[in-house]
Design brief:
The structure is a homotrimer. By secondary structure, chain A is mainly alpha-helical. Helix content of chain A is 68%, strand content 1%. Chain A has a two-stranded antiparallel ribbon with strand order 1-2. In chain A, a hairpin with a 2-residue loop joins strand 1 and strand 2.
């Protein structure tokens, strides 16, 4: 076994595991989103993440991966569609010459889960009112849009990469893009029934905050694949184990975002709102995504602290301007994605930019705004392309068949209307032998016989 | 540090991590199963997975691992029981000469979690009505049955391995076996009260679909250890990082299963039922388990698409013939396990069969049904052995002490009857200071003071 | 790529992944703790884990890591505070000469998640009644206390390490310390309202046992990073892949704890209580933490079996002496942590102590109690230091500003009182378009039209 092969083997272990962690972020989004919306839509909202990741995986295999990472020109890949056995086993060969550290299969796996994350973000702002078929059709469309932009910024032949844009793991590619489509969707769908009744933003609290907590921890966990895995190997330049450094930076930013989100909510809302604190974590993770390979620990803390403020203020501001974004996708992934992309231009350590061979040192080290301008250019180009493409696509769908469910359907909930089932049926319908049925009365009788642990007085006190 | 040792170290990292991922599938089964059954049994159903994995781990250490992977004859291992420190640290030495790429401890760890998965499948069809002691006793028995078959197919000295049977990660060994025992259990237990009242299959909807979604994503996540880890190392034949390819194949099949399950349910049930879509994912993962090292990407998609149909039609068919299988284990793990085993015989790429040094190319490449016949022979042998052994064991237990709870116990729910507690006590009994007690009234009063966010009109509208 | 660098790369892959697994244990604690307490506090209890891990990560970066693993004297590290880019990328250099197998960043990452686990344990005994600011302030204080002790026992220059104390992954450092602070907190807070009303320990059942099951499985899963990752590399002494052995030992103990906890509960409480079984798993994992690199498989089983008994009897005993510990932290992490530390002194295999170059063989092999005395000395020193420091800190906080919420706040629940929101709002307040509102009535009407699956008779039977 040669050393070169051992290195590829080690790279593949790391990249595949990182991909697996990122794939698990689907559970994070499913529970974050289901937790922050209403009971009557819970099965729909959690379940559609699985379905859409399926759609995305197939489309990305057939077309997206070739667009994003197949050999091609500065604007798109032009080869590597529906890849075969051989191209997936090869390392550093056409049509995937981009992947020199791992086999093509590891490349596909690592990249498809990123597409899946970007797509998961989209639905946050469209929750509780879109038709089921929209998920299928726009899922396909967005996967293709996403793939084009990832070619621009991540492929070594892409035009923004060529200009030196720094987006280590995708504040722009993944998060900002997802938020742009989410914004288009929210604008075209309009707000949920009752959201702006009476002329102000009425809160529609999520039905299960522990779900949202679980979702957030899963996302934090998965982000250790997202950012550190973006090294695509175990050695980066001449740094052995550089991905550990990326993990450190990621964790510091997330930690700062938690504290900052909680404190900001305490100051602004007069209570340390839990969901705002969670948003602070996520906004910080989003922001540090571009920066995680480029910045120093202190800068990670600064990025996270600012993101926590962005999360709280941003979510309130989006509501203030009349956009109904149930999960806060526009603020958390969009505004914070922009912040992270710019912050990289401010804080990039010159030595790390050299290690990664991407762009230059940031403003605080070089005194030059060059890198900030490159980042801004990238944001502008992606903003124009992704928002207009997404808006055009959804607008066309809206005109042709409509993208929003009927009022009655929305009121009844998507679970029963769109899927013919309930997320928690025992709270809604009599289930044979279930809670709330005659058996339940019987079963409460049982309870009185069976529970030696609850003292009689407390039962009576409560009765 | 020699290259040979570095390779073993890298192998061990990969195999141990894969084992850890597979272990986590217990959470997937716990939440899938708890989500698809009723509230009154939720603590029992989720909790028994932990207990049973404990039983399985001990039995497999004492006996099962020796039967499955200890040196022995064509039908069983005859050594390596209750392994010592030395045999667990050794690599490629008796009594575990089978494990040449990793230390014995990594072998144990990787194999015990597979036994745990097979055992977890069993209970799906027996849910909501079996006595607690059955889990202990049949848990022991099935672990031993399972170990025998895994010796036949996976140990290089096993008779089915010798014939060239291709079951890369266990469509037959793990899933089909689990489903056979599940079927035996469902037949001997009979249906739940009310299931076939009125002569037809009355649906008993699961109480928490988001749990089932979480369970499914955890299983998909864990399957990236299950299939790719079955390479038992980072280099396979002369392919560096071949496990990444296995992961790719696994993901494509699951994705196709999600889409196919949803579409099939839409056509058959007129709604894209979420739990059917989840079954599609799982059926596809089950089917691709045998095939994942052998087939091309397009074949993975075909396998997944067919599995999605199997999941929907199979679950309905099992109910139609009068078997009450609350989780769909027989269809999803049994029928789809058979499909995957046969599909491998159809679609195996000759070059990959050569890489894995197991069997021959499949029908579509060779025009020969040889491999399909080998697969069928394996299915027949395992079907006969595992079903009859499981049935005999459960039948004896039923005769001796009974395996089904009393009607009153089943009606009240296993949580309170068998464990003396509730899964969600605040919905069933007055908990001091809990929901529904006097404090709750007090607390609702609090709510009116504390929630500035809910506009008065919406509260009144709702009242 | 030199072999030395390949080894460091492989070490870093393993250590970083192990750290990620341990980080995920925060989700385990969040769901274990939320599941075992009441609905009205669920958002607070789950959410504060995220916040506190954020606080811990920042403090540990600024100060704790330097205290624990910076170069210094026998009692504390005196360098490496707020580490820079260079020190995080370096391997085996000042101020972190301790980390010779991985870069400093991997060291930080692996150690900060351990601090986070120890801190998570603290709150278990303080659940449902502490003020929010306590989490911030004592979170900072405990992180520092913890760091000092980890220097004593784990840093090669620490005084207890020098005496040969064996605490492989922290039964003492992490679990016993957490439990000592938890005990101090429970004593200073006093019991929850109603807990000892009528002079006896009234059970206050946790609101969601499936959450507790999920939490336990996540913890078991994460423990495969916790113990095996503590090798800090893929080769230990001359054992390649020794961490796999540690994983095996960990799994066997946990399995024995599950069985033993269930059986003990069956005998003592006359029912196989699910939460007691889960406590058995956790107590076993706690106990085997110190022992996991030192003992034989049979000893792991013994350690686990005893721990299962400790979990049940310990939890009941703590309640009997009038301490209200909602999650059982004192028994599960404290008593079992002591047991595990001592058991290592009893059962350590001499050859493994030599491999780890720490202490001597245990009593059953050497006939000498030397190692047991060393372990006892360590327990005594840590007990005195951590308990008194934690008590003093919390006592001061109590005197200055109070650490317990008002009675009205506790009765209403911390979610609404401290955070201005509900964990499950639809059970408490009218949510626009939510469960229990007018829309729900409408939606139940819908349900009758939309559910073809529930047979009419069962609906009527239930009505």
């Amino acid at each position: 076994m040669s050393n070169a092969n051992l290195l590829i083997a080690a790279n593949t272990v790391w990249v595949v595991i990182a991909a697996i962690l990122v794939m698990f972020m689907q559970a994070g989004f499913a529970f974050l989103e289901a937790g922050l919306t209403r009971m009557k839509n819970a099965a729909h909202i959690a379940g559609k993440n699985v379905l859409i990741f399926g759609v995305c995986s197939l489309v990305y295999w057939a077309v997206g991966f070739g667009i994003a990472f197949g050999d091609g020109n500065r604007f798109t890949g032009t080869s590597g569609f529906a890849p075969s056995v051989d191209s997936m086993l090869a390392i550093g060969k056409a049509p995937y010459s981009f992947f020199t550290t791992v086999p093509g299969a590891a490349g596909y796996l690592f990249e498809v889960v990123f597409a899946g994350v970007s797509l998961a973000i989209v639905w946050g702002a469209m929750a509780e009112r879109a038709k089921v078929w929209v998920y299928f059709v726009f899922g396909v469309a967005f996967t293709l849009i996403y793939s084009v932009v990832s070619h621009w910024i991540w492929h070594s032949g892409g035009w923004l990469f060529g200009l030196g844009m720094q987006d280590f793991a995708g504040s722009t590619v993944v998060h900002y893009q997802g938020a742009l489509a989410a914004l288009a969707g929210a604008l075209l769908l309009g707000p949920r029934i009752g959201k702006f009744e009476g002329g102000r933003g009425n809160p529609i609290p999520g039905h299960n905050i522990p779900y949202a907590v679980l979702g957030t921890i899963i996302l934090w966990f998965g982000w250790f694949g997202f950012n550190p895995g973006s090294t695509l190997g175990v050695v980066t330049g001449d740094r052995v184990g550089f991905f550990a450094y990326v993990a450190l930076i990621t964790n510091l930013a997330a930690a700062a975002g938690a504290v900052s989100g909680a404190v900001t909510a305490w100051l602004v809302l007069r209570k340390p709102d839990i969901s705002m604190m969670l948003n602070g974590v996520l906004a910080a993770l989003v922001a540090v995504t571009a920066a995680s390979g480029f910045v120093a620990p202190w800068a990670a803390v600064v990025i996270g602290l600012v993101s926590g403020v962005i999360a709280v203020v941003g979510v309130l501001a989006v509501e203030r301007i009349g956009i109904d974004d149930p999960i806060g996708a526009v603020a958390v992934h969009g505004v914070s994605g922009v912040w992270g992309t710019l912050a990289t231009g401010l804080f990039a350590v010159p030595a790390l930019a050299a290690t990664l061979n991407t762009g230059r040192g940031g403003f605080v080290y070089t005194g030059s705004l060059h890198q900030v301008w490159v980042q801004l250019l990238g944001l502008a180009a992606v903003g124009a392309f992704t928002f207009s493409a997404s808006f055009a696509c959804l607008w066309t769908m809206k005109r042709l068949w409509g993208i929003r469910v009927e009022e009655e359907t929305e009121t009844a909930g998507l679970d029963v209307s769109e899927h013919g089932m309930w997320g928690y049926p025992e709270f809604y319908i009599p289930v044979p032998g279930g809670y709330g049925t005659e058996s339940h009365g019987h079963l409460l009788g049982q309870a009185h016989q069976h529970r030696p642990q609850v003292p009689p007085q407390s039962v009576e006190e409560a009765a």
